[in-house]
Amino acid sequence: MRLGPRAEIFPSFLRYDFRAVGSQGLVRPRVVLFGDSITEQSFRPGGWGAALADTYSRKADVVVRGYGGYNTRWALFLIQHVFPLDGTAPPLATTIFFGANDAALLGRTSERQHVPVSEYKENLKRIVTLMQDCSNSMVIMLITPPPIDEEGRERSLYGENARKLPERTNEMAGVYAGQCIELAREMHIPCVNIWSKMQETEGWQTLYLSDGLHLTPEGNDVVHKEVVKTLRNAGLKSEEMPYDFPHHSKIDGSCPDKAFQ
Amino acid sequence: MRLGPRAEIFPSFLRYDFRAVGSQGLVRPRVVLFGDSITEQSFRPGGWGAALADTYSRKADVVVRGYGGYNTRWALFLIQHVFPLDGTAPPLATTIFFGANDAALLGRTSERQHVPVSEYKENLKRIVTLMQDCSNSMVIMLITPPPIDEEGRERSLYGENARKLPERTNEMAGVYAGQCIELAREMHIPCVNIWSKMQETEGWQTLYLSDGLHLTPEGNDVVHKEVVKTLRNAGLKSEEMPYDFPHHSKIDGSCPDKAFQ
């Protein structure tokens, strides 16, 4: 990492070296969202990615790397491009949010996306390890797959005449969520258990899920709140992070250059 | 610009060299939003920045560089850091959205932010010229300041007992909008005339503005639609731009590596 020309405007007490300027020349640190469609769609109205970008407004850039339909096996083909090991400041934090597709059932309509649960855990471990190789200060956070509303999923896929053979079940999503949580514990990294969290609220099936799998604005809000809580616990409190340039109230209208010195 | 390892997956017919991989190692081109609070707040619920990020999902990253309270004079202190001339792939497109603060009236509560209209135009010209130096293929788009609802502004600043001395007027915002449009014409770059566009709709004062100046979700929607229309006219049609990695439907479940070769 090299220090940028504006390094002097940043306080030095922060855990992360916020002064580091990536070779992309933009001063702000990045938070990368890596995952499947639930990440890809996170900038739709009410989306948790957009909300996160607003939470860290002027403090960090939120970079979305969501790949709809992807499982952890396919994610491994991308990861070295999304997180190169050289030439750039690593992200400040990354969310890893896979499993909804891995947990698609064998013998059903989405079996092409299925990854056995043991391989899912192993793939997640490889993803985390590659990120740790990329940076030892990056906050790496796992997010479990969300719960599944089998009825909603069937209606969405097959219409009202659902043929009652769900391609995903909530029970199976829970098995994958469990492995995700176990891996986080083994690797000593934080994990958002969205599978359990959502099911704490009555009516979660339609309150939080739009088609039995993807998130409503309310579901996005749950993810946003949990991710922010986890980032804050890891030391990334927006209000303690420096603006990339002076707040306008610090600029003297008759002598603005002072604020930028 | 160097070509990335995945250059071969991009078609060659596109005007912009989408194959270029910035040294930040992320494959996607960037659209930068440079402006004041109306840009900074563009990832709030219903925001035009978040909507733009979704429009170009998996095609381009939307990078927000909005600085609340800033005028064009202060923006000039930032611009070389936001748009460095070396070391990185330049943005695919940039929106420049200043003027709301420049147009604050002298002798009123926000006069610290005031910039004379001739200097506003000159500053905008310097910003555009610096960007053109940064890249001759970047789509550079000006956006005029929005209209002002003086009553809404007074209520927001002074409560119901408004003292009837608005710090911004719609007429003055229109003068600055006019200079913005004239500059765009002189420099042969596109301009979104949001000042006029919004006033075409009856009730624009409260339909599009939340406090007489900043945007409601409906106002954000107008900006989003106009910006997308302008980007499309400049050749940046999302549906014609390549995915950074294969769409999941192109991946053979039993032989996924083929899709990534």
TrEMBL record, chains A, B:
InterPro entries: GDSL (IPR001087), Iah1-like (IPR045136), SGNH_hydro_sf (IPR036514)
Keyword Transport appears in the UniProt entry: no
Pfam families: Lipase_GDSL (PF00657)
GO molecular function: hydrolase activity, acting on ester bonds
This protein's record includes keyword Oxidoreductase: no
Keyword annotations: Hydrolase
TM region positions: none
Family: Belongs to the 'GDSL' lipolytic enzyme family.
PANTHER family the record matches: GDSL-LIKE LIPASE_ACYLHYDROLASE FAMILY PROTEIN, EXPRESSED, ISOAMYL ACETATE-HYDROLYZING ESTERASE 1
Record-given protein name: Uncharacterized protein
UniProt source species: Digitaria exilis
UniProt lineage: Eukaryota, Viridiplantae, Streptophyta, Embryophyta, Tracheophyta
